Every structure is written in structure tokens, then in C-alpha cells.
């Protein structure tokens, strides 16, 4: 007779069924959160075994890994009949850039400074302007006027990196600015709800709390290492999908009772609740017969405000 599912297993099954993760996106989540802090190398067979409980079969995973290699997220090494995959330098840059938004979040204070990106009326084709707008929006910039994008508390380096990436470093102006609304002008911050889709992001945070809040009590009974790893991946993957679309405006610009604050606190509690057993599972699979597997980077201890005492 088969063993009955635990309450935690049933909850995880419902979450996976209601919102099945995409294989490639899930791979990126696991690479950045779990593998990068251990050196970023894993045998393909180990990765298949790690992600099987999340509904990712071998065929889907192989296809996803192939695409990540083609996009220079991963590099591959052949060792006889086995394949070892390593996070590339570009993959390291991408995951490092995302880490601030995933594990730290927006600034609690703000000095009133803005980074502006202005597109001249001539010199950029429609395709270039459209691509630049997509990249700036992904980075959290809002369009405050045609051809003018703004973000508070974002380093100008991020804007320059986007322009370099698109091959148009000399096609836009990157400026630092400060509101002079005291002289009778309109403060940029007053346009927040028009320039950033905060209502949609807020609802995503509420949905995250509704979906994963019930797991907190279920985790009072210690999960197995395999269950803990599944919880960690599911929570972090869903969290990552939200925060990388959140402009992460400074706290003074956000509406009262912003649901992102409660969702971030929940995510951090769940993450640390399963972290140690999830690491045991990761070490047993990813660290097996893998000379490139490194001890956990101490920087991880600072995620989500730091490991609870």
C-alpha cells in the first residue's frame, strides 16, 4: 500500500498544478540561488534529479540547458559520457545583478535623486527605441514623458550597461536629476501610479502571500531534505518572478500598507526555515563526484536580512 501524502506534499502538489514552472526559468532560479554560491557547476544527471520533483522531466531539462548554453548563461564540459555544466561569466553577472532585487529589495530611504534616460528625437529607429524601452522597463524605469525615462535611486551605471548591451551607447542621454517642485513644479514622485504599474505588482505580492503563507505552519514539522529543497526552489522561483518585474521604488514613494513588505518578510521566513535541510539535499546530489562543487559562500548568510539568530 502506498504511503499517504503528508499535508506539506499535498500543498506543494496543489501549487505545482495551479502554476507549473517553466523549465528554463526554473533552471535560472536554481542556478542563481542554489548553485552559484557553491561555484556554479553541476552534472546534468544531478540537475535532472534535483528538478524532477518539480515536474520537470529529462527531455524538458535537456532542452532548457541547451538553450541556456546557446544564450551564454551556461558553459558545458564533456567528461567521457557525462556533461558538466558551469555558470558562465555572463551568467554570474546576471545572477549577481538580480540578487539585490531578490534578497535585499528597494531602498528604505531616498535622497530625492533621480536617474533619467532621455532619447533625442532623431538618431534612434523605432526598433531601437522599442528595445530600449523594454530593457529600461525591466530595470525598473518608468516613462514620465515621450522619450524620457526615470528611476529613483538607480545608479547611472545600470542605464549605461543597457545602452552598451544594445550597442547604442551614444544614442541616449543619461542624467542625474533632482525635483525642483518646491518652485511650483510637479514632483516626479506624484506620477508613480501613472508611470509604474504598481496595482498589478501589488496584486502579485498578495497572491504570493495567499499561495505560500499556509506553508509556514506546515513547515513546523521538520520536512525531509528533499521536501525542503522543493519548498526553497518553489518559493524563491515564484518570488524571483515577481521582484524582477517590480520597479522597487524607494519606500517613501510606495502606497501605505504596500503588500510587498509583508510578502518579503514571509519569503524570508520560509527561506530560512528550509535552508539547512535544503542544503543537505543539494550537497548530496550536486556535490556528488563533483570536484568543482565549493563550500557555501558566506555571503548567502545575509540574504533576506540575514539568517535568524
UniProtKB/TrEMBL annotation:
It holds the Pfam family PaaX_C. Residues 196-283 form the Transcriptional repressor PaaX-like C-terminal domain. It comes from the Bacteria. Residues 22-91 form the Transcriptional repressor PaaX-like N-terminal domain. One of its GO terms (biological process) is DNA-templated transcription. Gene3D superfamilies: 1.20.58.1460, 3.30.70.2650, Winged helix-like DNA-binding domain superfamily/Winged helix DNA-binding domain. Residues 108-179 form the Transcriptional repressor PaaX-like central Cas2-like domain. This is Phenylacetic acid degradation operon negative regulatory protein PaaX. The gene is paaX.
Amino acid at each position: 500500500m502506498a504511503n499517504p501524502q503528508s499535508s506539506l506534499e499535498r500543498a506543494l502538489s496543489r501549487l505545482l498544478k495551479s502554476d507549473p514552472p517553466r523549465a528554463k526559468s526554473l533552471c535560472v532560479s536554481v542556478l542563481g540561488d542554489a548553485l552559484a554560491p557553491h561555484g556554479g557547476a553541476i552534472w546534468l544527471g544531478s540537475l535532472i534529479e534535483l528538478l524532477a520533483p518539480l515536474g520537470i522531466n529529462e527531455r524538458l531539462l535537456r532542452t532548457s540547458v541547451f538553450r541556456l548554453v546557446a544564450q551564454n548563461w551556461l558553459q558545458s564540459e564533456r567528461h567521457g559520457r557525462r556533461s558538466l555544466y558551469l555558470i558562465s561569466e555572463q551568467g554570474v553577472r546576471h545572477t549577481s545583478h538580480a540578487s539585490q532585487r531578490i534578497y535585499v529589495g528597494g531602498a528604505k530611504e531616498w535622497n530625492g535623486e533621480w536617474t533619467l534616460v532621455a532619447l533625442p528625437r532623431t538618431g534612434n529607429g523605432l526598433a531601437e527605441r522599442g528595445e530600449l524601452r523594454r530593457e529600461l522597463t525591466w530595470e525598473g524605469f518608468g516613462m514620465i514623458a515621450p522619450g524620457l525615462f526615470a528611476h529613483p535611486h538607480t545608479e547611472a551605471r545600470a542605464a549605461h550597461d543597457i545602452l552598451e548591451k544594445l550597442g547604442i551607447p551614444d544614442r541616449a542621454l543619461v542624467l542625474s536629476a533632482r525635483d525642483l517642485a518646491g518652485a511650483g513644479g510637479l514632483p516626479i514622485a506624484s506620477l508613480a501610479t501613472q508611470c509604474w504599474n504598481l496595482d498589478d505588482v501589488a496584486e502579485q505580492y498578495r497572491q504570493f502571500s495567499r499561495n505560500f503563507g499556509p506553508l509556514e505552519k506546515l513547515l513546523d514539522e521538520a520536512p525531509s531534505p528533499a521536501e525542503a529543497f522543493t519548498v526553497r526552489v518553489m518559493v524563491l522561483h515564484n518570488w524571483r518572478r515577481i521582484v524582477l518585474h517590480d520597479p522597487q521604488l524607494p519606500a517613501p514613494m510606495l502606497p501605505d500598507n504596500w503588500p510587498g513588505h509583508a510578502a518579503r518578510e514571509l519569503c524570508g521566513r520560509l527561506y530560512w526555515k528550509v535552508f539547512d535541510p535544503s542544503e543537505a539535499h543539494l550537497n548530496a546530489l550536486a556535490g556528488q563526484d563533483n570536484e568543482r562543487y565549493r563550500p557555501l559562500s558566506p555571503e548567502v548568510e545575509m540574504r533576506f536580512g540575514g539568517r535568524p539568530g
